Each structure stands twice: as C-alpha cells, then as structure tokens.
Amino acid sequence: MRQKRWFFLVFLVPVVFSFYWLVFRPWSVPIGSPPEVLYDQVVLDPPPIKWGGKIWVPVNEFGLVAQGPSGYLPLSQVMPALGRSPSGGHGEGIRLPLWGSGSKKDSHYRYYPVYQIKARLEPEKRIIVGHLVLAYQNPYFYPLYDLLFNLPSNGWPGSENTLTIQRIVLNNKPASFIVKKSRLEVFLHRPLASGETLKVEISFTTYLPQRPARLGVWEDTFMVSGWYPILSPREKGAWRGMAEGIAWGDPYFADSAYYNVELELPPSLMVRASGRTTGGEQRGERVLWTFMSEKPIREFAFVLAPGWKQAYAQIDQTLITLAFRNQLPTSTLDIAMGAFAFFKEYWGPYPYSYLNLVEVPLEGLSGMEYPGLVFLSTRKGYTPPVIVHEVAHQWWYNLVGNDTISSSWIDEGLAEYSTLLYYRVHDPVLYRQLKEDIIAEAGETLNLEELSEALNRELKSFTSEKDYRQVTYRQGTVYWLKMEEKMGVKTLQEALRYIQEYYRFERIEAPWLEGILNFYIQHKGK
Ligand SMILES: [Zn+2]
Predict the structure, then answer these.
(1) Of 264, 359, 369, 390, which one is the catalytic site residue?
(2) Tell me, what's the pLDDT at 524?
(3) N or C terminus: which one in the chain shows less Cβ crowding within 10 Å?
C-alpha cells in the first residue's frame, strides 16, 4: 500500500507539473511594474513633449482618458494617477514608466552602435580594402533574427558590385550572408535579445569609379562616401534598405553611431573626414591617419587630394577648416562661420570639435552634406546660400535625421528654411529675393494640409531631379513658411528646438513631427 502510493506520486507529480507549466506558466509569470526610464533615455512614439518647464505625455500611452484638446497631460499629474510619485520634479531627472511601449515597433533605447574601421587605399587600382568591427546592442524591445546592412556604393545607377564582401564573423564565429545589389543580409547564429550586444566583423573591398560623383575619383581628388557596409535603419519593425538605381536625392540613410576610423594612405594625399583627426603617423611608405567622431554621427565620409591649401576659424569648441585648391575663395569661410554661429544659437548646441569644408570637383550638385564634412563643388560652382544650406544640414540631417527615401522634405526643407532665417537677419535684401524665388519655383499654392499630403513622397515617385527639387526643396520650404505664419516664428523655433533636444542623434518621422507641431499650435500662448 505504502509502496503503491509512492509509485503513484512518481507519475502524478511530473504529469501535474507539466500540465501546470504548459497551461498556466505563460499567465503566471508576474508582470510586475513596467521598467522606468528617464524621459530622455528612450525614444517613445509618440514622444513626450517639454513645454513651459514641464514634461507632457500623451495620456493614451498610459491607458488614461484623454483630457484637454491635445490629449496630453503633465507627467506630474499622470504619475499620481498611475499610483506612482514623480521622481524628479519637473526637470530632466523625471522617470517615465515604460507602459505599453514594449509593443510599439519604433520605441527603442538610445544605444548607439560603435564602428571601428581600418581601411587601406590602393590609389593606382582605385580600391579600398577595409575591415569593419561593429559593436551593436539591440535597442529594441524585441529580439532580432538578422541584420541588414546597406552597401550604398552598389545602389547608385550602374554601380553594382563596386562594394564586395569577403567575410563576416559574428562574436568570433564565421556567419552566413547574402548580398543582393545594395542589400547585405547577415543571419545571426541565435536571436539577439533586447539590450544584448553583438560583435560583427566584415571584410570588404570598395572600388572607386572614375567619375565626379559622391563616390568617385576625378582629376586627383578622391570623394569617398557610402563606401562601407552601414547598418540599415529600422522602421515599423523592419529593416529599411536603399532606394536603388535613383540618381536624385539621398537614396539611403542611417542611424547615428560612434566611429573610430584608421585610414592607411600614401603620404602625397591629404585627408578631410567626418571625424576629428587624432593622429597621422608614418608607417613605412604610408601614413596611418586616425579619426574619431567624438559623439554619434550618421555616417563616415572623407575626401583625399594632394596639395590643398587651408584656412581655419575657431568658434567656441569647434575648429572650422576650409580646404581649397587654388585661390582662397572669397568669404566662403566667413559665411560658414556666420551660419554656424547663427544655427548654434537658433537650433541648439553643436557637439563636435570639428567642421570641415572641402572644395571638390562634384558634378550635378553644388554642395553635399556629411557629418562634420561639407562638399562644395568647384565644378558646378557654389553660392553663399549653398554654404549656409550645407551648414544647416549639420542640425537637420546629422544631429536630427529623417527618412530621406519617403520624407526628404524634412531635412531639405529645414535646411532651406534655415537659410532664409539666416538671411532674414544678415542680408534682408537677399532674403526677400531668395524667398520670392522659392515661392515662384514651388508652383501651385497649397495650404498646410495639402502640403503635408504632397510632401511625403517616395524618391522613386519623382519623375526627374527637377520634379524632386520642386517638391522637396521649394514646397518643403513653403511648408515651414506657412507653419511660421500659423504658429508664430518663436513658437515654431521652440518646437523645432525641442526636436533638436529630444531627437538628438535620432530620426524624426513625419507623423511624430506633425504631432509635436500640433501640440505647440494648440498650446500656443499658454
Ligand atoms: Zn540639402
């Protein structure tokens, strides 16, 4: 009898336990309280707003009934309603319970990847042999099963296979991958959990075509952008590749990361890059140049040429340099300095110690923006407003980015609007001229609602460079001019300064941008 009962229990206990585990475990795990983070440690969708010294949160996010016209409540009122006491008064130290945002595909922690790139240029063959190490921490609230890298140089019209991949290693174990034009898909050995870190090593070779382009060699100048595998951004829970084969606009974009780069170059070539130069050491026949980004930047580009002349200007912590070939271009450096000082004041701080302007033989574009680096075309020529526009991109493109494939009007429109703001103060005659030209070239007159419909267009939907420019640049600027009329120049500045603060080193998406602008419109004068 005793023995029988024991025998019975041996069977019963595992059966009951398995049944309990299978049926109840998913529900019996204590949910606990949501993680708490400082309001600026996480990117929420929709974002919290700072207004009148308080942080306002969209109440729907926290399961509360919306009150007031905009559905926002001060965080100091939301916290007691959730049974919590606010931790840090009304300032920076206030903690948000991360309620519900785990299911939101675009909410993430601010973990910035770190790229370490070592590359050697072979100038006669016009190739770069590179080795990249990426330290990546999954910033999302869900696991990742693969990584997508963009190979931008393969995505330009007629440039397939300029960037080739030799080997990929994940956490010291070789990994399998697929390359399809500009897409490099890397399969992870096992899922990468939220917050977990992965080391990715990629060996690659990039061929530099002979052309006066953003990636190309022309005369004796090497223009080098989009030259290495760069992690694709994610949108709505999926990787966002490049818009291949499109000649206009910026058909790829990236999220910010720290960069440490070593370039091995022949001693005859000088270099200007998207980073602070930290060393230039002779190594046999070569010079080993080292760079660091200091803070996150959106990508790393550089230019090489022999025999540049240079001019310098220091503004606060930042050294602005101009590299040019022949005559010192009159006033280029002065205009860059004026614009830089103005935008620092108007939009917010510039967190790097370097800003490099370089004259290059670029075809088709007067200027081109990279983080801490501006191309100015000697081939097409550039005017003073082009310099101001490119300097403004350091705030709108580099510090705060956007999807340049579906909403290029955000950074282009804001760079143009910034240019108008600069001239409104510094040269009112030129300001009126530029404004009239933009309005005339924008074509049909649309109101704000019609504009926000018309502006969010995929790059491939434009029929030509001219069509792209009319919508993205001209109508994109008219949008900001109309927004200024609607909310007042000061309130618009305040809203955009908030975006510079909350979205620094991040990307703003069009619906979030409109949400923030609407908040400021509704609370205007409060
Ligand atoms: Zn631009």
Answers:
(1) 390
(2) 76
(3) N
Alpha-carbon torsion angle 44, 49, 55, 61, nearest 10: -40
d(CA 377, CA 399): 23
Q: Which domain holds residue 349?
A: 108-401
C-alpha 409 – ligand 1 centre gap (Å): 9
Tell me how far the alpha carbon of residue 190 is from its chain's centroid.
28
Residue scoring higher pLDDT (231 or 452) = 231
Same domain for 368 and 331: yes
Domain stop point among 371, 401, 431: 401
Judge whether 514 counts as a catalytic residue. no
Q: Tens of pLDDT along 106-115? A: 789 999 999 9
Residues 397, 451, single domain; the answer is no
Is pLDDT at 497 greater than 90 in this prediction?
yes
pLDDT value, residue 315: 97
What is the arithmetic mean of pLDDT over 508-523?
91
pLDDT at 513 over 70: yes
- Tokens standing for 374? 């501006």
User: Is 506:400 a contact under the CB 8 Å cutoff?
Assistant: yes
A 10 A CB-CB count for 83 gives: 8
Average pLDDT over residues 459-476: 95
242 by Cβ neighbours in 10 Å (0-12 / 13-18 / 19+) ranks as buried
Distance 376 CA to ligand 1 centre (A): 12
Ligand 1 centroid, distance to 390 Cα (angstroms): 6
Phi, psi (rounded to 5 degrees) for 295: -130, 170
Whether 9 has a pLDDT exceeding 70, the answer reads: no
Whether 53 shows a pLDDT value over 90: the answer reads no
Residues 6+ apart with CB under 8 A from 179: 151, 164, 165, 185
390 a catalytic residue? yes
pLDDT for 367 equals: 97
78 with 170, same domain? no
DSSP sequence for 345-368: HHH-----SEEEEEEE--SS-SEE
- Count Cβ atoms within 10 A of the Cβ of residue 229 and give its class: 0-12 exposed, 13-18 middle, 19 or more buried: buried
pLDDT in tens, 260-311: 999 999 999 999 999 999 999 999 999 999 999 999 999 999 999 999 999 9
The pLDDT of 187-211, averaged and rounded, is 96
13 is a domain residue: no
Q: Does residue 386 sit in the same domain as residue 416? A: no
Give the residue from 352, 382, 401 where a domain finishes: 401
Q: Which residues sit in the known binding site for Zn(2+)? A: 389, 393, 412
Question: Of the residues 109, 252, 258, 473, which is catalytic?
Answer: 473
Q: Would residue 22 count as lying in a domain? A: no
- The CATH number given to whatever domain includes residue 217 is 2.60.40.1730
Between 499 and 61, whose confidence is greater?
499
What is the number of structural domains in the chain? Answer: 3
The answer to whether the beta carbons of residues 184 and 229 sit under 8 Å apart is yes
- Do 435 and 337 sit in the same domain of this protein? no
Measure 304 CA to ligand 1 centroid, in angstroms.
22
Between these two residues, 468 and 69, which has the higher pLDDT value? 468
